[in-house]
Automatic annotation (TrEMBL):
Pfam families: Ap4A_phos_N (PF19327), ATP_transf (PF09830). The active site is at residue 162. Transmembrane segments: none annotated. It comes from Tetrapisispora phaffii (strain ATCC 24235 / CBS 4417 / NBRC 1672 / NRRL Y-8282 / UCD 70-5). InterPro entries: Ap4A_phos1/2, Ap4A_phos1/2-like, Ap4A_phos1/2_N, ATP_adenylylTrfase_C, HIT-like_sf. This is Uncharacterized protein. GO terms for molecular function: ATP binding; ATP:ADP adenylyltransferase activity; bis(5'-nucleosyl)-tetraphosphatase activity; sulfate adenylyltransferase (ADP) activity. Residues 8-169 form the Ap4A phosphorylase 1/2 N-terminal domain. Coiled coil: none annotated. The gene is TPHA0B04890. One of its GO terms (biological process) is nucleotide biosynthetic process.
C-alpha cells in the first residue's frame, strides 16, 4: 500500500532489505571502527564522534574536479536502488549511499538533473518531511532525518541535487531535539540555543503540516540564515538543511573545512554527529572534545546570541 504521497508503507523494510543484500554482495562497504559520545557542559550540546574509515575511499570534490567530470547519479545502479520513483510523482529516486556513514544511509535524488547549489523547492521540502515521517512511523518511532548540503561550502560533493536519509543512532539526542523540546509549534519565530558558537535556526512543526506551511518555514529560516552573513557575502547562499518529523533547521555556512584541524563538516556536524575518516583526527578530538564548538564555528557564522525562548 501507498501513503498519501505515494511512499510504500513498508519503506523501511525495502531500505533494510536492499542494504542487507548490498552488503552481502559487497556493493557497499561499511566499517565504523570507533565511536565516542560526550556532552559539552557549557553549551549542553551532545556529540557523537564516529570514526568511519571507509570515508577515506570516497572521492573528494577536489579530486573529482581534476578528473573527467562524471555524474554518478546518471548511471542506474540497480544493486543500490530502492525505488526508481520514490513518491509516485516521477521526481525522485531513492538509492543507498555507496559510502554510508551509518547503516542504511540513503539518498533521495532528483530524477531530472538539478543543481545542488540551489535552495530546496516546495516539492523537495514536502518530500523530505513525508519520507522522515513515514520512516519514523514505520519502525517504532526511531527518529530519521533528511538533510541537504546546499553548495560546496555546505559540504556537497556532487553537483546533482540530492538529499540524504539517515536513521539517528539510538540513544543520541540531536541539538535540535533539545531546542524544540518545550517549544510551541504555532510560531514562525525561529528557535536557537544561545550557548553554542555557530548560527542556526530551528522551527518546531505541527503534527499535521501542509506543504505550503513547510516551505514557508524553510524560506523564513533561510532568510534569517542569509542575514547572519556579512552584507558582502549574502549573495552566497550555501547552507545546511535538516528536516525530521518534528522540526526543520537551517545553518548558514562559510566553508566546508575547519582551519585549525583536518576535518570537514556537512549538515550532520551541526546536529552533533561528527564524521571522522582519519584516526589521528579522531584521537585529537577524543583528547580535547571541548574544541568541537570552535571547529563548527570556523565553518559557519557566529550565533545571533538570542535566547531560545
Amino acid at each position: 500500500m501507498l501513503d498519501d504521497m505515494g511512499l510504500p508503507e513498508n519503506i523501511s523494510e525495502l531500505i533494510s532489505n536492499k542494504y542487507t543484500e548490498a552488503i552481502k554482495n559487497k556493493d557497499i562497504e561499511f566499517v565504523e571502527t570507533k565511536r565516542i559520545h560526550f556532552s559539552d557542559e557549557h553549551t549542553g550540546m551532545d556529540y557523537l564522534i564516529c570514526l568511519v574509515a571507509t570515508l577515506a575511499k570516497k572521492p573528494e570534490r577536489d579530486d573529482i574536479d581534476i578528473k573527467v567530470k562524471r555524474n554518478p547519479f546518471e548511471v542506474p545502479e540497480p544493486e543500490l536502488t530502492v525505488l526508481n520513483d520514490a513518491l509516485g510523482d516521477g521526481r525522485y529516486k531513492l538509492v543507498l549511499n555507496k559510502f554510508p556513514v551509518i547503516p542504511e544511509h540513503g539518498l533521495l535524488i532528483t530524477n531530472k538533473f538539478e543543481q545542488q547549489k540551489v535552495p530546496l523547492t516546495i516539492e523537495d521540502v514536502a518530500a523530505a518531511h513525508q519520507l522522515a515521517r513515514s520512516l519514523e512511523n514505520d519502525i517504532d518511532g526511531q527518529k530519521h532525518i533528511i538533510f541537504y548540503n546546499c553548495g560546496i561550502d555546505a559540504g556537497s560533493s556532487q553537483d546533482h541535487k540530492h538529499m540524504q536519509v539517515l536513521r539517528v543512532p539510538e540513544g543520541f539526542e540531536l541539538l535540535q531535539d533539545k531546542i524544540v523540546a518545550d517549544a510551541s509549534a504555532t510560531s514562525l519565530e525561529p528557535l536557537y540555543n544561545k550557548k553554542v558558537s555557530f548560527a542556526h535556526f530551528v522551527m518546531k512543526l505541527p503534527i499535521e503540516s501542509s506543504k505550503e506551511y513547510l516551505y514557508k518555514c524553510y524560506t523564513e529560516l533561510l532568510q534569517k540564515a542569509i542575514l547572519t552573513k556579512p552584507s558582502d557575502l549574502q549573495e552566497q547562499k550555501d547552507h545546511n538543511v535538516i528536516i525530521c518529523k518534528d522540526w526543520i533547521c537551517v545553518i548558514p555556512r562559510a566553508s566546508t573545512k575547519a582551519r585549525s584541524m583536518d576535518i570537514a563538516f556537512n549538515s550532520l556536524g551541526y546536529s552533533g554527529i561528527i564524521l571522522v575518516k582519519h584516526l589521528s583526527v579522531f584521537n585529537e578530538i577524543a583528547n580535547q572534545p571541548s574544541q568541537m564548538d570552535k571547529l563548527l564555528l570556523e565553518c559557519g557564522f557566529p550565533n545571533v546570541r538570542q535566547p531560545i525562548d
